[in-house]
């Protein structure tokens, strides 16, 4: 039971990262490699602040603001510098690695005996791993509510229109460059926040902890879509992402119970993501084959 509650808590916290990635990957419809630099950047800021005695709430907010800063850099490189978004993200990610080393002072820093959001007094009265679930649930619900409200405003609709059809959005007077910068800032802000939360949960920050985070976020998004389908409202899609994140962590737990090593997690993550992304293709082929048998469709 302890393993399951721990996994659910981890799924909720990783779901915050997936929600951030959703803004660029699904709404703006482009891959943002900044993710793998932003995540440890948020963790480094949060842990460094906590080590220096900063209040955990403020340290967590700083991780969000730090993430927004990396998103701003990528956004400016992409929109003003006319650098392709993939390369702009890689450039920011590469530069942030050195910044993380500067912030931490070394490759990794622990939080032994330091105050965090997860060891607040009222949370310590709860059973083992329940503080992670409570904190994860709080942030997941808060972010979903705020995103749902934002995306239904005129500004949010302009953001969505930019991802759907940039030329049409421009014809309507929407500044698409500003929308892209805004999207990258919000996305990376949430990813930095996830880094700060997971660093507090794990008790450390490491400059290499961002490797593979994009795959984890994409897996949560794809699994949520596969399980619940594509005919969802925007709000329910956000909820599906959190559930997809929890399912993904449960799959990893199952794999671990089957005797695989934690060293295999990234390989398994890539395989799970590949399978989930190919499921619609398999479903389509199966549907066509079924129609052929009934004589409805032509080969």
TrEMBL record:
Keyword Protease in record: no
A matching Pfam family: BPD_transp_2
Protein keywords: Cell membrane, Membrane, Transmembrane, Transmembrane helix
Statement: the UniProt record of this protein carries the keyword Transmembrane helix: yes
Topology versus the membrane: Multi-pass membrane protein
Superkingdom, taxonomy of origin: Bacteria
Transmembrane stretches, start-end: 12-30, 57-78, 85-104, 130-151, 181-199, 211-231, 238-259, 265-282
Compartment(s) where it occurs, according to its Swiss-Prot or TrEMBL record: Cell membrane
Protein name from the UniProt record: ABC transporter permease
The organism of origin for this protein: Lactobacillus kitasatonis
